[in-house]
Amino acid sequence: MSFVSKPRIIHKSLKRNALGLTVRDYEGVATTLCAGCGHDSITAAIVQAFWEMDMPAQQVAKMSGIGCSSKTTGYFLSAAHGVNSVHGRMPSVTTGANAARRDLTYIGISGDGDSMSIGLGQFAHVIRRNLDMLYMIENNGVYGLTKGQFSASADLGSQTKKGEANQQPPIDPVKASLAMGASFVARAFSGDKEQLVPLIKAGLRHKGFALLDVISPCVTFNDHATSTKSYAYTREYYHPAIHADFIPPSEEIVARYDEGETMDVQLHDGSHVILRKVDKDYDPTDRGRAFNFLMDAQDRGEVVTGLLYIDQKQGDMHQRSGTASKPLGRMEHQELCPGSEVLKDLQKAYR
Amino acid sequence: MSFVSKPRIIHKSLKRNALGLTVRDYEGVATTLCAGCGHDSITAAIVQAFWEMDMPAQQVAKMSGIGCSSKTTGYFLSAAHGVNSVHGRMPSVTTGANAARRDLTYIGISGDGDSMSIGLGQFAHVIRRNLDMLYMIENNGVYGLTKGQFSASADLGSQTKKGEANQQPPIDPVKASLAMGASFVARAFSGDKEQLVPLIKAGLRHKGFALLDVISPCVTFNDHATSTKSYAYTREYYHPAIHADFIPPSEEIVARYDEGETMDVQLHDGSHVILRKVDKDYDPTDRGRAFNFLMDAQDRGEVVTGLLYIDQKQGDMHQRSGTASKPLGRMEHQELCPGSEVLKDLQKAYR
Amino acid sequence: MSQVNNFVIKLANVNGTGSASANGLVMKAIFRMGVPVVGKNIFPSNIQGLPTWFEIRVSREGYLARSGEVDVMVAMNGQTFDRDLKEVSPGGVLLYDSTWPRERSIKRHDVTVLGIPLARMCNETFENPRARILMKNMSYVGALAALLNLDMAVLRELIEEQFASKKKLVGANIQAIELGYNYALENFKCPLASHIEPMDKTAGHIMIDGNTAAALGCVYAGATVGAWYPITPSTSMMDAFRSFSEKTRVDKETGEKNFCIIQAEDELAAIGMVIGANWAGARSFTPTSGPGVSLMSEFLGFAYYAEIPMVLFNIQRAGPSTGMPTRTQQSDLLLCAYASHGDTRHVLLIPDDPRECFDMAVQAFDLSDRLQTPVMVLSDLDIGMNDWMVPELEWDDNYRPDRGKVLTDADLAKVEKFYRYVDSDGDGITYRTYPGGDPKGAYFVRGSSHNKFGAYTESSAEYKEVLDRLLVKWETAKTVVPGPVIRSSDQPGRTAIVTMGSCAAACREASHKLAAKGIHLDYMRVRAFPFGEEVEQFLEEHDHIIVVEQNRDAQLRTLLMTETRVHKDKLHSVLHYDGQPLDYRIVVAGVEEFLSKGEMA
Amino acid sequence: MSQVNNFVIKLANVNGTGSASANGLVMKAIFRMGVPVVGKNIFPSNIQGLPTWFEIRVSREGYLARSGEVDVMVAMNGQTFDRDLKEVSPGGVLLYDSTWPRERSIKRHDVTVLGIPLARMCNETFENPRARILMKNMSYVGALAALLNLDMAVLRELIEEQFASKKKLVGANIQAIELGYNYALENFKCPLASHIEPMDKTAGHIMIDGNTAAALGCVYAGATVGAWYPITPSTSMMDAFRSFSEKTRVDKETGEKNFCIIQAEDELAAIGMVIGANWAGARSFTPTSGPGVSLMSEFLGFAYYAEIPMVLFNIQRAGPSTGMPTRTQQSDLLLCAYASHGDTRHVLLIPDDPRECFDMAVQAFDLSDRLQTPVMVLSDLDIGMNDWMVPELEWDDNYRPDRGKVLTDADLAKVEKFYRYVDSDGDGITYRTYPGGDPKGAYFVRGSSHNKFGAYTESSAEYKEVLDRLLVKWETAKTVVPGPVIRSSDQPGRTAIVTMGSCAAACREASHKLAAKGIHLDYMRVRAFPFGEEVEQFLEEHDHIIVVEQNRDAQLRTLLMTETRVHKDKLHSVLHYDGQPLDYRIVVAGVEEFLSKGEMA
Ligand SMILES: Cc1ncc(C[n+]2csc(CCOP(=O)(O)OP(=O)(O)O)c2C)c(N)n1
Ligand SMILES: Cc1ncc(C[n+]2csc(CCOP(=O)(O)OP(=O)(O)O)c2C)c(N)n1
Ligand code: SF4
Ligand code: SF4
Ligand SMILES: [Mg+2]
Ligand SMILES: [Mg+2]
Prior knowledge:
The complex is a heterotetramer, with two copies of chain A (351 residues) and two copies of chain C (601 residues). Chain A has 351 residues and is of the alpha/beta class. Helix content of chain A is 27%, strand content 17%. Chain A has eleven helices and eleven strands. With 601 residues, chain C is α/β, with parallel strands linked by helices. In chain C, helix 1 packs parallel to helix 4 (129-148). Chain C is globular, with a radius of gyration of 26 Å. Chains in contact: A-B, A-C, A-D, B-C, B-D, C-D. The interface between A and D is large, with 65 and 78 residues.
């Protein structure tokens, strides 16, 4: 329900890509997410990546489930087709679409709730099929759209706005996808476009399944008075139990740091996340090492970012099953129907 | 539909446990599985384990989903309650039961189809909750009950009775559960009771979630002419396409080998599985090492058996959430109902 | 008609700006002044930045439905200013923040437009930027206080209660209220024609939403295990259950909790947990909404066939599919009645307000235990998430849960052999046992075909025997579910309204309005499925039955047609399904249209 | 009545012993001899070691339903010997393996019991232990050949065809047949009164099961993407689709496959894939059974509301829950008609035999594309897994798929702007586009509320506009789904049978039997939901309508009651739901009972 229709004034000064399009041409309808939501930063990175890739809109299919994150497919590439399906089931719809049109580029956007809870089974199995797609998780550790319950990726001990502490250890999409055999595994932070844009492009180009887990702070439901260090001191006039529907204005969190470095990012609730960017000489082709590297970083309380694992030799779903190179959805009836003579012949076995 | 009712003649000579019960007292109704099915060997091991543990039947709840494997809860401990639920959903029913009766011992029996396909989400999340239960997967790489389709744990390249080759890499329950943070992870072979019985006992005793993946050959749907080395030579009179409903008589496969050793087991279809039992000095408390150990063995084409990982410090679901020690299902109404005065009081907030 | 204590205030806000507490304050103040009131929250399916409305109906007669009028509009949202202005009833008043000029594309000469520079006043008074947003809300409360004649002492009292734990906030809030109050007093003629005069019609009542009341019912029924997957508009029910349980069920000394709440990974798991817990002897429930019920369908059939009690609360929202998650509807009736494949049918309870949510929560557990089958309580967003004025909830301390036919170890000692599905009483209900008891009572639960002894069977006769007994149980259900609420009109006749759930308030008001025009209608509100003999009789006694419900496909009419003896030509529909709570005028119009057609015929 | 070409053979076996091929051979031989025949397989939900029966009805009149008689019993299963003996009709014959003595608890003086030492003979003749099991089956085929007068040349021909790729097996099989044949000839009076004499009534016919035929229909309709999760009794449909596709859709040179079959991780994923593929422009389908449909409910509502075509085959089995997976029933009708929460309704096609499975598979894709909504084909285990004798399948090479209203890039070039949900033709069906085309045709699919332009909306009016248009589409559906099959009796009257699907054969035979007794009934078989005008008219023209169906809760009667204008008192039920295929005598008895009650009244 976008009430403010977004003016599509294209400044002459905007740079154009090989298709003659500006970044603006890759945008979608106006966002209805909270001001400062990490998801919007990711949308901007996606827009940037497509523009840089000179991607024609009709080449792209945008797929999603349900959640704040899943809404974002509406906020880029208006000129592309898209399916906003049901909660947790984006992978299967994408699998079917890809079965029909292997010639398109699939970008699936999901949330940590959408993928790690209700959708975990489909997530694991789309990986197993090595479906040719970029699968992005806009990971905020909460269910944003249903107002702040923990998701399965929430850290142990983190607290909701209402003050309950999470008692369950997290499921890490990166470790889970490594264990399920994903052929491309990466992580980034919503506020670090410099790292994010190239990873999106790499994921889109990867032939097979590419997981891109993006840490994407929820400015609304991580903003609780109980967190270690919080904005509480600025909130003299605010009583969480009474102003339960109040969402203080926030700004996008931005982070910049170099390869091999760590960076301590303060979130809206005052808590911190320590990001570690993989080194230039990190070898992302060793699945075992990737797992260990993640475990070690976790022990140090760091969240590793970058391209963590890649295997370009696994065939995608179609290569494995020998599907025709011409997309099935574009076949003519004549190519598919064996005709009356064959029917007669086939029926001999039933006499 | 057991037509032959099993005579329950208890031989005087049978040994009795501390409860004065013989092994026979731990049996269930007669099996309706195929002769030689690995699942029946596992049932026998379960019977043995309970008997050795002097387990009273009313202490046990038997839980399962749907599949040949899931039927086996009927074949042991007739005197215990059990729920044969729906396909892939045993974990949730067990979670609810445990929530109500934390004082019981839960044994859940599942298949690779039941757990790695339709039930993968529930499998992952029951692990995440560290529910106090023994979760056994009777793993045969196929859907036995629906007649031989691949399951998600089927090896790459293995073939069905009809000759199709599996194109998807397997999901390994052991690796998956390690990645999901399971607190007890073990694997065994159905034909090796010597290893299996102690692991069942350990899993039942473990406070928290215990995964026991048991390789359990399906004598019927792995018995196809196309496998590398098969019984085909004995099948002069047999035409698979025509005798599709013919299931040749088979015998249980038995294996015995020592810790630290490997053992090459020939399955009914003539194919082989190489088992490696973990060494006496293997340290099962290091999750990272366990993962690496598995990866290395896999590279050598070996399937590791034994207790692979254990962590006794994680609290189970109730410990984490501070549930009363008295089982909720046994509470009297008086312990639960706050009464009319409190109701009056609570309603003050709504005036 | 005089507008004193009889008007509608509508507040147009942007969500996420903390307006809910301010709006609630206005409603609460009116309630405390003894004047009947009800609030409807119309909010978007997002978190921040989109339009949201709160509608307060003040009704000295105690009507609780929407009236379709807007007498006082508080237009705080620039995005919707135009349509808000359009919506004001002729002669009404619109209040807005005049800090910034509003461009208006429409002119309304029949509406009094009052501007107050709320933002400017607050910016001048408060430093902190967040405070300014919140205090702006409070300042319009102040303006309304002046315009509507709200009792400032009551407002102060409410503020003091609310901020009891954060006392230093009291001053600022009162200051903000006074800002608006004084400005209005000084600049406008106060009070308006639509204003409040104290009454005594709210004594013995509370203002509560259905989800909170249902959660309280679960606590009182002795439910211990709650499993759920978050979904609007059911989520607040589990929040309330958690908070009441934390208050009343935690051992003071040990901190041990006499409850266990599990956030499941999805709805399929949530219902599985509930089934497991009920099987094991704990009362357990799950709150959900439409999409959740669809996902639970397979398990509902399992519980039906394996005869495991379980309680489900479906807080209905507008479908199909994801539909409008923050809008109300009654469109899951058919799904719930027959959920799952095969021959399945389920017991439903349909409350009409939060008080009945409380009562029916308790009944649901009793019926489910007694009938050993799923019981679904069909509430909706309107009941579940809006504050309704209802008589105080009551509790009889002599209440003991009806756990149905459960054999204890002592009972088992008396029988020779226990068979799970043998009907020894002829009511279709058989005895069960809990796990953990005497092994003599052990049995094996299965969703596959079983005979009356509980053993697996593929015998046609044995299978059919169990399936047929379930029909006997269904007949028993008809006799134990709550009967309908029937109200004969002053001039009982052959024409009637039949309705359910949240339509009740609008139907009641419509009946009065129609009676005033000389149209007298008898009234029946069904409260449960299956329908019992009272429902049959009422239908039999009437020739024209107007079925009022909130869905497109006349689902209640469909059920009546197939599940009672009624002749279907007697049933006529008034349908409302645009997602807004039902407005009584829709019922009036529907009835009049039907009657006029009838006369033509 | 003479028993030549008019009797039932029942073979009692243990499953997993390879008896299916032997039993099929008997049936095929009779078919090749020109005598109408049908086979019913009654098998357990396990893999090996439990009882299984195969019933072959030989009917010179061409009746395809069960008759309830057993004229010749081949009792190869010791476990069930007693009940098998009990089941033989008076005057019938029982053949058994006399190698081991059978203990009999019952005596039948009215049954001729013939013992042949099959196992002993085979053990003496064949070395290999597996061969002995298989050859024992063949030897009873031989004995039957002698007893029933089967043409040995036909049997030989069949054996040679079957083992064409493994010629060396031919000899042994024939040897085994001869063992039994010779023994019977030598020891018994051959042939029996129940025996075969060649006819010419099977020319132009085939023996095929419904799942195979439906799969073939999918191939011919141009379906390319099949996604499924294995579930009895639907699994063989995807096996057949795979095998036909491998035969007809693989490029000889490149080996490229013009199809893509995906074994999904569960039913929720399977339907998601089908929706995705259809959205992207490929014809796609999923075969499943009851529990699968329950799990697919949420997605069905999505496809309904987002208006995405998709085809689902529900091969129904006995419910509720896991129920009896290897038994037949028609108990998913209501679920399928209204699957999902909110106001949803779905188009159903209901074939009565394998030939119609083929035809309706093609129709399902055309209707689904045309109506842009899910179409479910409701078959059942009886049709899907049993071999039926049907006229050869036919294909019109001029057939072109009806893809419905799809705008190509060329079409788009002609329009100024494309809006997904604007109804420009008044039939409720709007234009769609496929992804990968001109960006002008791009739109966003959602299961949340949308306006006719395809944009997200929470406006009540816009939401309702789309929901109402779906009802217009539903009216259109009534005019394009296949009409009923209507057969007036010789003496058309006011009493009729109405039925669906696999009940047809039994109803046809019952009608004949009743007519012979002077009871003439008109007949209508509904073939689709929603019901069209022809159905309405037929109902209108009859006063007593006996609805015959295979479920407990009279689901077809329920649908007729609510979804047509029929007066419900006209509808009476004959219900059969014990999992066995319908026996015509049940219909006869049901009708007679109804009529006798009618006379009493
Ligand atoms: C079947 C079903 N169950 C529940 C919901 C309610 N629901 C909507 S979004 C959501 C969680 C979203 O969390 P996440 O995927 O992390 O997205 P975020 O909003 O945090 O970006 C839930 C539970 C639903 N839409 N459908
Ligand atoms: C919802 C649902 N879908 C499908 C089925 C059919 N089904 C029964 S068992 C089974 C697979 C069993 O495989 P597994 O768990 O590996 O057990 P196994 O028989 O191999 O021991 C399937 C697909 C079902 N019962 N329910
Ligand atoms: S609730 Fe959180 S995730 Fe959702 S839009 Fe707001 S900030 Fe983003
Ligand atoms: S089919 Fe396989 S898994 Fe099932 S009972 Fe037979 S051998 Fe065991
Ligand atoms: Mg999230
Ligand atoms: Mg298996």
